[in-house]
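Design request, tokens follow.
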């Protein structure tokens, strides 16, 4: 199959030669729930790579499968889901791993930050306990873990760490609590950080601070980061490379600098045109016609064709393979009509 060969041969647009062990490698991942006639496909042929120390964006509309994809790296599949393909974190085969191995993986190698810090932190436990539990589970003695918690809070810009460890989550603002969650996520020095819309619940100033902090911490630890967002401008600012998802599939992959200047997929271009920006000279915001589709309800052939201004009869025949166009890998039959 062309897509697989192309992906295997080619160097990542912005991610270097890929000769190091990757932090995350998802290859040709398909996911479905239910069986037989009632099977509902959720993801199809998703391939995503995150190198060590690299920041990789996963963007797309609501329901495109971003969170599902990110969660597979933790071995968190929907109940009753069947997966085919590969998911490897460092050298761990996640889809084949047993419960113990997955628990170990989550404790030591992968951390996840969710959109809403209040939903991911136990409201009746003190911040100090929240921060030390991961360290204690790794065998760090209590006193050293407590010192490390203070140090981490200091690093993420919490004033008075000594007071903060005795406080409860509701005593922090959303932005401050997200800093605490970042400190927790990085306390175990993971190889992979999954950030699923980590700043969507925050105001823009706090968002910029939290993103800056994430990048700084990630650089300091050499952590690979999968940054999930629906905000293209944010992805451009934060990421080295970006994958664009639509209806459970990756439709484009590119270095973020070229993706935003020269999109190759009509969906990427439509997303850019629909994204309000305070920069540049864009004046018109154009909504994408129709509504986002889940994989199960998408048309035959290219899933985007019923919303695509460039679609022709041949787009209905098969799902387009990924092929190079400019600096992108794109699943479209006519990318030259998007950006020549
Ligand atoms: N446990 C599940 N069982 C069945 N379908 C699911 C399950 N979890 C998610 N889905 C479906 O899979 C699709 C992708 O969901 P996902 O949460 O990955 O979207 P997303 O891209 O993260 O969207 P958002 O931007 O809204 O967070 C959706 O259509 C959703 O309804
Ligand atoms: Mg999501």
């Amino acid at each position: 199959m062309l897509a697989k060969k192309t992906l295997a041969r080619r160097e990542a647009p912005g991610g270097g030669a890929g000769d190091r062990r990757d932090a995350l490698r998802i290859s040709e991942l398909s996911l479905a729930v239910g069986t037989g006639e009632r099977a509902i496909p959720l993801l199809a042929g998703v391939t995503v790579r995150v190198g060590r120390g690299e920041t990789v964006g996963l963007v797309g509309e609501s329901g495109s499968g971003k969170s599902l994809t990110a969660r597979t790296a933790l071995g968190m599949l929907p109940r009753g889901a069947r997966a085919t393909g590969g998911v490897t974190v460092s050298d761990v085969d996640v889809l084949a791993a047993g419960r113990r191995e997955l628990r170990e993986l989550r404790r030591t190698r992968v951390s996840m930050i969710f959109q809403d810090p209040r939903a991911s932190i136990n409201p009746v436990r003190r911040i100090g306990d929240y921060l030390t539990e991961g360290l204690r589970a790794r065998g760090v003695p209590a006193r050293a873990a407590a010192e490390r918690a203070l140090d981490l809070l200091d690093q993420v810009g919490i004033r008075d760490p000594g007071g903060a460890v005795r406080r409860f989550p509701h005593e922090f603002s959303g932005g401050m609590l997200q800093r605490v969650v970042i400190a927790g996520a990085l306390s175990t020095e993971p190889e992979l950080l999954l950030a699923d819309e980590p700043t969507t619940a925050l105001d823009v100033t706090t968002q910029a601070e939290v993103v800056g902090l994430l990048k700084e911490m990630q650089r300091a630890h050499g952590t690979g980061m999968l940054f999930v967002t629906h905000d293209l401008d944010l992805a451009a600012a934060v990421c080295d490379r970006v994958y664009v998802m639509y209806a459970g599939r990756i439709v484009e992959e590119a270095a973020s600098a070229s993706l935003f200047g020269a999109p190759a997929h009509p969906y990427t271009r439509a997303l850019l045109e629909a994204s309000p920006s305070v920069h540049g000279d864009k004046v018109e915001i154009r909504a994408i016609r129709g509504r986002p589709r889940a994989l199960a309800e998408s048309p035959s052939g290219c899933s985007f064709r019923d919303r695509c201004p460039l679609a022709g009869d041949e787009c209905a025949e098969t799902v387009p393979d990924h092929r190079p166009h400019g600096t992108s890998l794109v699943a479209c039959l006519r990318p030259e009509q998007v950006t020549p």
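Comment from the thread starter after seeing the answer: thanks! Confidence is low (pLDDT under 50) at residues 1-19.
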